[in-house]
Amino acid sequence: MSDWLVLVLAMLGACAVVVVITLVRHRRAPEDEDPSETPDVIEYMTMWIGVVYAIVLGLAIAGVWEARGAAGDTVQAEAQALHEVSERVRVYPEDVRDRVRTDIDAYVSYVVDTEWKSMTDRGEVTGRGARLLDRVRQDVTDYQPRDDFEAQAYQPLVDQVAAADQARNARADSTGATMPSVVWWGLLAGAVITVGMVFALQIRRTARELVLAGLFSATIAFMLFLIWDFDAPFSRGIAVTAEPFRTLFPHA
Hints:
Elements: H1 3-28, H2 40-88, H3 94-122, H4 127-141, H5 148-173, H6 181-200, H7 207-231, H8 243-248
């Protein structure tokens, strides 16, 4: 099912629940009930709960968005480090240079064509990807520079391989959900309480109030969907892509 279809269904479902409960409550309300006589304390509590929950939603969205941005930065850093290795290795002999570049291309091709699907479907990187990167590291570290010029290029190449490995580890740590389940329970419970407080205001069955109540619940459903979508940076609708690898290694 498409993520956007899930969003539409969630928003429509939230609106439908609020409207149905309002209509049922209105039908069962006593004839002498006066909706205008809502106690001031209920209005104050409703406003206070709404403000607190809005702050919590904002912090949650900021957290998952930051995590998504960090995941994108790790992909860019990994691709850039490998690109630097591929370019700087030109000072080495032709056979060494070609071997390093071939192994880098093999690693990039595997990440883009195979490992990315594993990250999307199962939320994990693969052991083969780690072995392919280890082969690149061995190509670089096992070579013994023949002169000072090659020796000066050796340590920066080793550093770039280490940076690529560090970025890969960070990418592996970002494949799963970033928010603990207890936070999700809090967000869902807060949504139920916040929407439920609307009924404490004794809303009537006028078209204006029903539309506002429905839009209010749909907005909360939309915010929860955004948090859920951003919570897994590599596997949902607005996901981090392998575009940095494709851009820097178009031939891989």
